Amino acid sequence: MATQKDIKSRIGSVKNIRKITRAMEMVAAARLRRAEQRIEELRPYAEAIRRMTRRAVEAAESIPSLPLLEEHDSMDSVGLLLVTGDRGLAGAFNSQIIRAGNRRNRELSQDGKGVRWYASGRRGVSSIQFRGLELASGYTGFTDRPAYADARNIADDLIAHYVDGELDRVEMFYNGYVSPMTQEVRHETLLPLQQADVLGDEGGGDEDGRGEDEGPDHSRSLWIYEPDPEEILERLAPDYVEISIYRALLESTASEHGARMTAMRNASENAAELIDNLTLEANRQRQAEITQEIMEVVAGAEGLR
Fold first, then answer.
1. Which fold has domain 28-260?
2. 4-23+265-304 has which fold?
3. Which of 240, 167, 247, 246 is nearest to 200 (CA)?
4. Per the confidence metrics, is the pTM higher than 0.90?
5. What is the structure's pLDDT at 95?
6. CATH 1.10.287.80 domain range(s) in the chain
7. Alpha carbons 60 and 229: distance in angstroms, whole number
8. Interatomic CA distance for residues 1 and 85, integer angstroms
9. Segments of the chain with pLDDT less than 50
10. For residues 108 and 102, what is the distance between their CA atoms, to the nearest angstrom?
11. 167, 77 Cβ separation under 8 angstroms
């Protein structure tokens, strides 16, 4: 049975831990606000690049012989990019991305396809290496505040491996930011662009309430291209891959700060509850000791009679 001294020592330790978790919660909240601002600033630009790329594809008389737009004859090798964080203490933020990547790996393996792993963040890199999987490329040290240059480095590697034929398809997993309490795992196809989301169904319409596809030549009637759409598409394709990765990095950063803030708040609340329980146990222990001393005094008095 723990003594009163042991219980007080545990209370002191838990109080120190609560101070740390509260400080980490406040730091995560401050970083989250900055990350939210960066996402809000990037989202309109990313959506504009997507719409522009889609319209250029629709307006092009013939798809140029661009490697990023060409689908390979076979689908033997698939690259999986996992966007995680450099640090832990963020609840299920990192683990849910790793689980999603492993599920996709099993699906591809059952279909007889090979997988090449790419990871952003130390948690993803270490997890892949711990499982004995071959890591093609790892990118670390910038997840707290990613820059566009970081996204370009990742995109350059993926594009080079796809163009060289080392990859037949590139997919990406990351945490999409919904709110500080909610982060959702998102799965997107980056390459080839013919299978990417940019050429998929476009949800919603323009800001004026009109859809983009009101007629067969609706987009052409509103847009004048200079130079030709084919040439524009050649310039936009690499930019689309880069901006897609950059957006995923920013979404992941905000999700990480939100998940860490929530996890540290929960840890602080659990610490407060544990302190209350330990204080109650200490009081009971002290009461039991006082009662025992009174009984010993009474027994001694009875013995002197």
1. Pyruvate Kinase; Chain: A, domain 1 (3.40.1380)
2. Helix Hairpins (1.10.287)
3. 240
4. no
5. 94
6. 4-23+265-304
7. 5
8. 42
9. 200-221
10. 10
11. yes
